[in-house]
Amino acid sequence: MSVEALRRLGEEIAACRRCDRLVAWRERTAADKRAAFAEQDYWGRGVPGFGDPFAAVVLVGLAPAAHGANRTGRMFTGDRSGDFLFAALHRCGFANQPTSAGVDDGLMLSDAYITAAVRCAPPVNKPSPGERDACRPYLERELALLANARVAVALGGFAYAVLCAIGGVRPRPRFGHGTVAEVPASSDSGEDTRPLAGISRIVCSFHPSQQNTFTGRLSAEGVDTVLRDARRLANLSPA
Predict the structure, then answer these.
(1) Residue 239 within a domain
(2) Whole-structure pTM over 0.85, yes or no?
(3) pLDDT-based confidence at 193, cuts 50/70/90?
C-alpha cells in the first residue's frame, strides 16, 4: 500500500547520511540553535515529504530551511516561507488551516502533498550538483508512490529543473512564474517515463522565500493564481 510505502521511505530519508557536507551542516545547525528556539529539540535529519498520500497536486521545493524544517521535521514548517505558503494553500482549498508551526499543530492537507528536491538543509540554501543528484532517487520514488498525482508545482527554478529531468521534459521551457510545462507520456524509445507517468504538467511558481515575498516579486495573488491553476489542471473543483 502506498501509505505504508511512503512511511517507510520517510524513515529512510530521515536516516540518510549520503552527503557528508549536508549531514555536517544539518547537525551543526541543530546543535548551534537560533536563540529564539534555544529550548527546542531540532530534528536535524533528512526531512520526508508530507501531506495527502492520494494527492492530485504535488508541490516541490528546494530543500529544508536550517531553522525551519530542519528544526521541526516537516517541510516548510516553522519559517517565513512556510507562513506564506500555508496561508495560500488554505485560501486555495488545500489546507485546513492557514498556519504551520510544528508537526503537532493540527495541519492537514487535502489533495496536496509537499516535498523537496533535496532533503537536508544546505549551507546558504545552495546544494551542490552532486548533492542534488544523490537526493534525486528519493524524489523519484516518492513521486512514483503518489499514484493519484496529476500536476506538480515547482517552487522555484531548482525544483523545476529537477522535475523536468525526472519527467524527460526536453526541451525545457524557460522557467517563469505561471509557466506550464507539458510532461511527455513516454520517452523517445516509447517506454513509460515513470515516476512522472501520472503527472501531465509542471506548473512553475517563484519560491516563497523572504527574498521574493518581501520584495513583492511573489505576491499572495501571484501564488494563489498558480495554486488555482494547479487545481484546474488536476481536475479538482474550485476552492
Answers:
(1) no
(2) yes
(3) low
